[in-house]
Amino acid sequence: MTPQPSTTAKRRLTGGIGLHWLGLVPFMLFCMLFLIFPVLYLINGAFQTPDGRYSLETILSLRDPQFLTSYWLSLRLSFVSAAMGAIFGLLLCCALLLGGLPGWVRRAFMTFSGVASNFAGVPLAFAFIATLGRLGLVTLLLRDLFGINIYAAGFSLFSFWGLALTYLYFQLPLMLLMITPSIEGLRSEWREAAESLGASGREYWQRVALPILMPSVMGCFLLLFANAFGTLATTYALTSSNFPVVPIVLFQQIRGNVLYNPNLGYAIALGMIVIMAFSNTLYFILRRRAERWQK
């Protein structure tokens, strides 16, 4: 019987690299072509002027009040939509997993969340216009059946809170999908130990469950924040260019006919990358803290 070559011998035959590493090649190529190289190209362009000179002039132009206002508007909109998505998504997840609801209800919500978390852009904008626009179905039902005119009361789908409500459509199901493993990771032994020491249900949540869940909740909040910060298609479809969040201002600089200045667009995008990198770094730190309770 011919002896089979050992794993070490196989690695020697392949130059010390296991064949299983070949499976990573398509992913690495994709990251290089569509993430690493574009970011490097963008950074290079952000430090150039339109005539090709290397200078800090383009980066320093972000201090213009127009761009500072756009960043502040995007930060507020992302924070509000992420906070609403995190709070309502957490409450919904607790109701589904800990509220004693039938299993089919949970499965239905999970299936719907998988679809809704990816439903954005023009279709989502049209759905909200048909529902909560000035002549939307819900708007007319509230006005004709209950005498409530939400637009006369100050609400507008094309305002800050209208956009935050629209973002909530994909933020809430995304939060449900992300926080579910953490809720399921709460061990029954922890609750039994707390109850054996005389803790009430409120004290268990206040002193045991919420402190354990908090890193996961904050990590999910940061992901929702990053998700909202980069949203362009939904905002543009709803408000055209009348709501100057950062992605729309960037789009105007890259593709606009009047405000065309690609280098300034690269500088704006670089600012977005810095905010995204800060948010994702905090997320990884919080995720490592949350994983301590899963070991």
Strand content: under 5%
Helical coverage, percent range: over 70%
Order of helices and strands: HHHHHHHHHHHHH
Backbone structural class? mainly alpha
In short:
The protein is mainly α. Helix content is 72%, strand content 0%. The protein starts with 6 loop residues before the first helix and ends with a helix.
Q: What labels would you give this structure?
A:
295 residues; single chain; 0% strand; mainly alpha
Topology:
Layout: H1 7-13, H2 25-46, H3 57-60, H4 65-98, H5 103-116, H6 122-132, H7 137-146, H8 160-184, H9 188-196, H10 201-229, H11 233-239, H12 246-255, H13 262-291
Helix pairs in contact: 2-13, 4-8, 4-10, 5-8, 6-11, 8-10, 9-10, 10-13, 12-13
What features would you describe in this structure?
By secondary structure, this protein is mainly alpha-helical. It is 72% helix and 0% strand. It contains 13 helices and no strands. Helix 2 packs across helix 13, helix 4 (65-98) crosses helix 8 and helix 12 packs antiparallel against helix 13 (262-291). The radius of gyration is 25 Å and the shape is globular. It starts with 6 loop residues before the first helix and ends with a helix. The model has no long low-confidence stretch (mean pLDDT 87).
